[in-house]
Write a structure and sequence with these properties.
Number of helices: 2
Strand order of the largest sheet: 1-5-8-9
Strand content: 25-35%
Order of helices and strands: EEEEEHEEEEH
Number of strands: 9
Shape: globular
Radius of gyration: 15 Å
Helix content: under 10%
Length: 144
Amino acid sequence: YELQDGTRGAVQAFGGMFGKYDQAPYIFLSGDERTGNAQGDDEFIRINGRHWGDIKRLLFYVYIYHGTGDWSLIRPKISVAIAGEEPLLVVPKAEKSELAVCAVAMMDNAGGHIKLTNHTEYFPGHAEMDRAFGFGLQWDDGNK
């Protein structure tokens, strides 16, 4: 995410960075289901619309951090829903197993309105994705 004041960061289960709904960055990840075996939707990212004016842009991404390196075996489905609009549904299908990060979509604050762009681009890691979208974050390798 990038806030209007220039603050940049990530909200993701890896590293326990779940964000905050009522405080900056006004983005909250519901948890880390990890297996994908739960009934229904596994994880949610909630954005506090009362603070949409504080948010400049959000990049939604998913990644494989353990186990299979093949998107076709895990078959994730990502839905980006905006009130009053049809959800954007993305099913990552990268052919190359070394492309473990998928940048799904960018949500920009365009004069107080929401501009949603489907990207569905694949990268070997977070740092490569970050460079492509210009967030300037420092990424380190890690494990769970």
